[in-house]
């Protein structure tokens, strides 16, 4: 048996590239060889964002991660926040080019040819290419196992009339996907954007990813224990929280916020971040800014630049902001792990969810789209480590709501205690004999 050589292929957004990069680092530490395939566009973008000190460090570090790239088929000026465009362009172009890349990589190291493909969702075509070349494959699912279970169950949900063929719930109701799983509302299914073309894509992609022998999930047994019975393919390997240099950041990280956090007492700072995709309108932005002013606590707020790096938002005239620090992009895991952070105002993307849980930080949930509503239900109703921010009759989360909920959250001793307990249970998965550690070892042995 040789060393497993993995070809890692993420869909080109941070929510997929980051966890696959972390898994790659972990596999590399276990002696595996990794070839990481980014689109040209993303490779250029993430490479520009490695800080000078990290670049120097990278040179000294022996790494078994080798990078290769392929074009996504779009023009440089095309809008890559249009996911339909990106998904279909990739599906049209990359499958034809992948065999050549594999051949070239294998020619460079004939002793250790690519033995397994790890693709994230939307990149299931890579598993098909692998099957044709006799290379085995797995899916890395980057959202919760419960979201995966929802997608896996689409055919049954259509069959039993819970949703129609376009993914719309036939009525709002509480259902259980399988016995022992928490009740979930049919309006919270992760494909809630209700786009027929994207829904059909999900259905097709779910049948393609059946080619993956395992569906690796960045989750843990304690967080979603009842979900694993949905399919024997689901394997928890999380939380993926490697401390390696972040060589996959889409924006330059502003690390001055860590020094700023150092100057604040323990559990005093409200951390506000909505991941890499969520966009709010200017009215909502104003309410958030003024809400943070109203709260009697310092805040660290990530106001992400748009993809073309032009600032989108205008701060309202009344905004004071002197209690806070605003940065464009920060080292989120280090921020969440900082003792000064008291709570996390989050859009509940899965990576943010698992990072917050790992750090034992209570949540103020502000879901925007997709799987974030399912995640919010787990945070507030299942694990009970957060509260939800509600919207008023105009569809806005008001400044008063923000102030009230921050105070409610920080005054809730039960939530603080449960967050720390959940942290411990979650970390137990990655100790030597922990559930996720064992799963990872078994997976590597399978890949040999
Ligand atoms: O200043 C920041 C802000 C965020 N992050 C990182 O960016 C990632 C954000 O990921 P996530 O919280 O999952 O949010 P999205 O970027 O919105 O992720 C998309 O992909 C996820 C995984 O599939 C889904 O759960 C989300 O709903 C979807 O929007 C996390 O690792 C954060 O640590 C930083 O490094 N610095």
Low-confidence stretches: 51-60
Helix/strand-derived category reads alpha/beta
Q: What's the quaternary structure here? A: single chain
How many structural domains? Answer: 2
**C-alpha end-to-end distance:** 6 Å
Roughly what is the average pLDDT, rounded to an integer?
A: 93
Note the main sheet.
7 strands, parallel
Named once each, the bound ligands are:
uridine-5'-diphosphate-glucose
Could you name the CATH homologous superfamily of the largest domain?
Answer: Glycogen Phosphorylase B
**CATH architecture assignment name of the largest domain:** 3-Layer(aba) Sandwich
- Helix residue percentage: 40-55%
> What fold name stands as the CATH topology of the largest domain?
Rossmann fold
User: What is the CATH domain class of the largest domain?
Assistant: Alpha Beta
Please work out how many helical segments DSSP would assign.
Answer: 16
In one word, what is the shape?
Answer: globular
Radius of gyration: 22 Å
Beta-strand residue fraction: 5-15%
